[in-house]
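Figure 3 (text version): structure tokens given as input.
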């Protein structure tokens, strides 16, 4: 008989310090979680992204905790809507992700859980930089329609097993991911979802993203984060 799925626990609001700011998020922890996944959304999105919330729900059903969080404060978001000055500040967003990884590693309810990063679009660039900054803390990375090129100088430093998911019709982003994969020294796979565009809006395509991400995180979040690159 297969194991029963973990009890469903609705995410709850959290406020987490990250440098000089406090960020708003939603933390969901199934009982006996095997790891936790921190989401980094793309430019112009938020923790209320329906796509990321769907994937997060599938991860929780598989026994993984999730943290969906806004990487900009409400004040910064209001400015960014007008100027777009923050959404492409990848080093700043990565710095905040690092602070969130540190918080997850130290908080009482998440201490000891392996940490994964799920980055979408530009958020994938920030996630890869954060993984390079914390090679002993990040155990796995998944990029959905990501822009790993935004992290190109740091990509060879990433040690966490990394899954790159791209839509088959998203030709420009496929090329970006192929070029990024060639720079990686970690264990990595590129999975192309046939018939999907950048946002995976076609029927069944987001479900395929969730399946691939779930399998990757379930496989890798039960292990210590890799400190050294494979030979």
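Below: residues designed for each position.
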């Amino acid at each position: 008989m297969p194991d029963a799925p973990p009890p469903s626990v609705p995410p709850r609001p959290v406020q987490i310090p990250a440098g000089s700011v406090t960020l708003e998020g939603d933390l969901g922890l199934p009982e006996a979680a095997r790891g936790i996944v921190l989401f980094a959304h793309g430019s112009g999105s938020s923790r209320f992204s329906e796509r990321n919330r769907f994937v997060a729900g599938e991860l929780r059903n598989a026994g993984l905790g999730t943290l969906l969080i806004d990487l900009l404060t409400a004040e910064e978001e209001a400015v960014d809507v007008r100027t777009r000055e923050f959404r492409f500040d990848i080093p700043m967003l990565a710095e905040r992700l690092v602070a969130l990884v540190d918080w997850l590693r130290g908080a009482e309810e998440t201490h000891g859980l392996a940490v994964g990063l799920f980055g979408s679009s530009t958020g994938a660039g920030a996630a890869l930089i954060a993984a390079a900054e914390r090679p002993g803390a990040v155990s796995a990375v998944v990029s959905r329609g990501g822009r790993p090129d935004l992290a190109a100088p740091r990509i060879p430093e990433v040690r966490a097993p990394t899954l790159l998911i791209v839509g088959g019709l998203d030709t420009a982003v496929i090329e970006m991911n192929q070029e990024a994969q060639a720079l990686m020294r970690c264990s990595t796979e590129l999975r192309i979802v046939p018939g999907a565009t950048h946002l995976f809006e076609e029927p069944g395509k987001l479900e395929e993203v969730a399946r691939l991400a779930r399998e990757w995180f379930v496989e890798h979040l039960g292990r210590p984060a890799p400190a050294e690159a494979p030979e």
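The CA atoms of residues 35 and 114 lie 5 Å apart.
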